[in-house]
Here is the input.
Amino acid sequence: MSEKRDFFDLERGQVLGPYPARLDSDHARAYLDATAATATDGSPDRWLPPLQLGALLVGVLIDAIEIPPGLLHTGQSFEFLRPVAPGTELTAELTVAQVAERRGLRLGTVDLELRDAEGACAVGRASVLAPLPSAGGGPA
Amino acid sequence: MSDAAPGHMPPVAPVTRQIDQALVDRYAAAARDPNPIHRDTVEAREGPYGRPIAHGMLVLALVSQMMTEAFGESWAATGQLAVRWRAPAIPPVAVTAAATPAQHADGRLRYSVRCTAADGELLLDGSASLRLA
Here is the structure.
């Protein structure tokens, strides 16, 4: 992972990545254990838990930016475009869709895309906010 | 399945999980999330809740688990989620994910989804939809 970006310096249209990623069956079982989930027919042996792809994208976002005090993840959307087999070579890319400042808060929305060899396999949008440093910067 | 009124959509069974700090710690490791507000740290103790809170994505995982149990690979192939977090889940807490049929149009089933704490507090709400194979 390259150097982290300051959340308050993100600009609309800025692209972060691409970042290579891979989730194997052991990762999938650890994810199921960590979410108190049970294996289902086909998952995780044939296809990864869909939200694990989302968690991977959010993890890439967390890795890509310096988390300011009080950052809140307020909203999230995902679209799963096809099942992804364990061990698939993946690429994550993030695009800053919107930034705004309102009432002492910095709001950001970031588009998330995960690709395999066929193209996009999961996409999403994360909404986050954090107090502006000049607003005190304490945890929200 | 042809388009039909929400009342004729397949029911989705709710999922309840106990979220305790051990589970949150396992999720932090599995998701590689270093945010100290999810662990027993000074930041969590001095934060607005006075203690660690569960990851929003851990709460959301119950929704995806519920949809996976109901629809299997169709959820992995065509699922869509859009949610907003309304309150933090503070461990230990039993969280229930539930889905209510909302719309069946253009071959797509859409459910209103929500996660609530055992005391009824709304933690998350939004929608989940999919197209059946």
